[in-house]
Amino acid sequence: MALKIWLNDKLVDQSQACISVYDHGLLYGDGVFEGIRIYSGRIFELAAHLKRLYESARVIRIEIPISVSAMLDAVEETVKANGITDGYIRLVITRGIGTLGINPFACKKPQIIIIADTIRMYREELYEKGMKVISACTMRCHPLSLPPQVKSLNYLNNILAKIEAIDNGVPEAIMYNHAGYVAEASGDNVFIVKNGVLYTPPTHAGSLDGITRAVVMRIAAENGIKVVEDNLTRFDLYVSDEFFLTGTAAEVIGVIEIDGRQIGDGKPGAITKMLREKFFNCARGRTD
Ligand code: PMP
């Protein structure tokens, strides 16, 4: 069935939802976006996603032409119009139409696109058995090149790492920063467990300030697990007791092998499973 897409100030038919070939979002990957989940009719962590969207836009000097509350209404209206109760929202802000030169200030009107659709997740089997990953050769962009907290439309750095993963027959690749520390996976944040403590790299090591990451850290703390944000090395990943990734689409998924080294006993660990289950319930509005 054709979807209704939010374009700038109204819903239009999918076939009418068009963007100019002069839009700098297309020409230069100049824009920002969010991926958001809908669980049982509730939009998960919408306020946090909108905060990140507006902050990302601010950093790259895009002034989103509508207020946060108007954006919130537009997102809700789009979800409702498409009757999506469990799915995924893609909210995109492009720089807008400009010239063929890169000058962003030639673009006068940022474009707002909101798509609410269903989502394809990793196979259930992958959650039960855990996934294998590799270390990418592609280095994460230096934080002084592009702040990692900006969720920009320019994903080439991550895409190069994803290509390495697929070439090696695994779904994800771990990216390291200029100093050799773990940054993040190509589309997810990284966590390990060592001696009962949960570790994740700080965002300044080169990772997105993941919404799932923040919720998982909160759930861990609420359940008496110490959470530490610190630089991690490849060694730390290799000798971890448990290893998992977090993201809006992936939720919480265990990693059981990296670069041919088995993690723990080769199955998703107990803390990973507990956090996955509690995240699952929290996202669906179930508390225990
Ligand atoms: N890092 C990158 C590069 C991402 O694209 C994403 C989102 N898919 C994440 C981390 C996870 O962030 P979130 O939990 O907000 O989806």
Any chance you could write out the topology, listing elements then pairs?
Layout: E1 4-7, E2 10-13, H1 24-28, E3 31-39, E4 42-43, H2 46-59, H3 68-81, E5 87-94, E6 111-117, H4 124-129, E7 131-135, H5 156-167, E8 172-176, E9 182-185, E10 189-194, E11 197-200, H6 211-222, E12 227-229, H7 234-238, E13 242-247, E14 251-258, E15 261-262, H8 270-283
Parallel strand pairs: 7-8, 7-14, 11-12
Antiparallel strand pairs: 1-2, 1-6, 3-4, 3-5, 5-6, 8-9, 10-11, 10-13, 13-14, 14-15
Helix pairs in contact: 6-8
4'-deoxy-4'-aminopyridoxal-5'-phosphate binds next to helix 6 and strand 13.
Could you explain the architecture of this structure?
Strands 7, 8, 9, 10, 11, 12, 13, 14 and 15 form a nine-stranded mixed β-sheet that branches. Strands 2-1-6-5-3-4 form a six-stranded antiparallel β-sheet. With 288 residues, the chain is an alpha+beta fold. The chain is globular. Helix 6 packs across helix 8. It is built from eight helices and 15 strands. It has two domains: 4-117, D-amino Acid Aminotransferase, Chain A, domain 1; 124-283, Alpha-Beta Barrel (D-amino Acid Aminotransferase, Chain A, domain 2). It binds 4'-deoxy-4'-aminopyridoxal-5'-phosphate. 4'-deoxy-4'-aminopyridoxal-5'-phosphate (PMP) is lined by residues 35, 158, 184, 187-189, 208, 210-213, 246-248. 4'-deoxy-4'-aminopyridoxal-5'-phosphate binds at residues 35, 158, 184, 187-189, 208, 210-213, 246-248.
